[in-house]
Write a structure and sequence with these properties.
Elements lengths: L1 H6 L1 H9 L8 H40 L7 H27 L3 E6 L4 E10 L2 E11 L5 E5 L7 H9 L3 H28 L4 E5 L5 E8 L5 E8 L10 E5 L3 H4 L2 H12 L2 H11 L4
Helix pairs in contact: 2-3, 3-4, 5-6, 6-9, 8-9
Length: 280
């Protein structure tokens, strides 16, 4: 009987239908009847869940396309229940996003619009907060916002706003957090590493040129160009080290310094370089 139990209730019943199992005693017969009832119950629940999943998909499609919901008795009541469950699930996701420093979503204007609040942080410090209101009356449209103009908001909206709302918010949150992190690194460089001068930066902070003064046997000025090609990250993808003294910029020590920039935030890399005696 243990082998049969491992095969599962449905497998057990299929074996009975083929006639490969013959009850040996009344107790075994009762157990098989119980298993049969259990199997029927599981099938019923499975079919109910399938129908609910299909109904939720239909409701989501209706909501996204702006079509009116059915208004006939039990069907309308079922739709309201499903929508309530869907909203509760969305609220759970909203709390999770808030806890990881993502964003908060709040319904306003009696459900006609949604307000999204994006929280940015870096190294455990909360930085700027950005807000956006979305009009939900027909199709989802951005009503107003204070997102920095350097963020390609229109491009993100064309890509995902209508078809994948969660992906749109996630992409925007990642870009805002990465921008805030790059800005904060520049502030920390000016605050913590006074001997390094920020020569160039732009609104996106995706290109950063630093002038460092090397010390040691081969002293001189070194330019470090950090290029952040992936705007969802706060670490550069490419670092260029330049100096009039080629032996300095191509030395083993400065090759290690180049790797420091690729593996750690800029201010942290510079403080390490200063502690190791690479820069003044």
């Amino acid at each position: 009987m243990d082998d049969l139990t491992q095969q599962g209730v449905l497998g057990h019943l299929m074996a009975l239908e083929r006639g490969s199992l013959v009850p040996k005693d009344p107790n075994q017969s009762k157990k098989l009847e119980t298993l049969k009832v259990t199997a029927v119950t599981h099938r019923t629940k499975r079919d109910q869940l399938k129908r609910q999943v299909e109904e939720i998909k239909i409701l989501k499609d209706q909501i996204k396309s702006g079509l009116p919901l059915d208004d006939d008795g039990g069907s309308a009541e079922l739709q309201r229940s499903l929508l309530t469950a869907w909203r509760m699930q969305l609220k759970d996701l909203q709390r999770a996003h808030h806890l990881i420093g993502g964003y908060d979503v709040v319904e306003c204007k009696e459900g006609r619009s949604v307000c999204v609040c994006f929280h940015t942080a870096f190294e455990g410090v909360y930085l700027d907060t950005y807000n956006m209101e979305l009009d939900m009356t027909q199709t989802v449209q951005i009503a107003r916002h204070n997102i920095p103009p350097s963020i390609p908001l229109e491009r993100f909206a064309k890509q995902n706003l209508q078809k994948d709302f969660k992906a749109f918010l996630q992409t925007l949150s990642q870009n805002l957090n990465a921008l805030a992190a790059r800005r904060q690194q520049i502030s920390l460089i000016k605050e913590l590493v006074g001997s390094v001068e920020v020569m160039e930066s732009n609104l996106l902070c995706n290109t950063l040129v630093l002038m460092c003064k090397a010390q040691g046997e081969t002293s001189g000025v070194v330019l470090c160009t950090l290029q952040y090609r992936d705007l969802t990250h706060y670490l550069p993808r490419h670092v260029c080290i330049e100096s009039e003294d080629k032996t300095l910029s191509e030395s083993e020590q400065w090759k290690k310094n180049q790797m420091l920039f690729l593996e750690s935030p800029a201010h942290t890399a510079l403080l390490t370089m200063k502690r190791m005696g690479s820069i003044v």
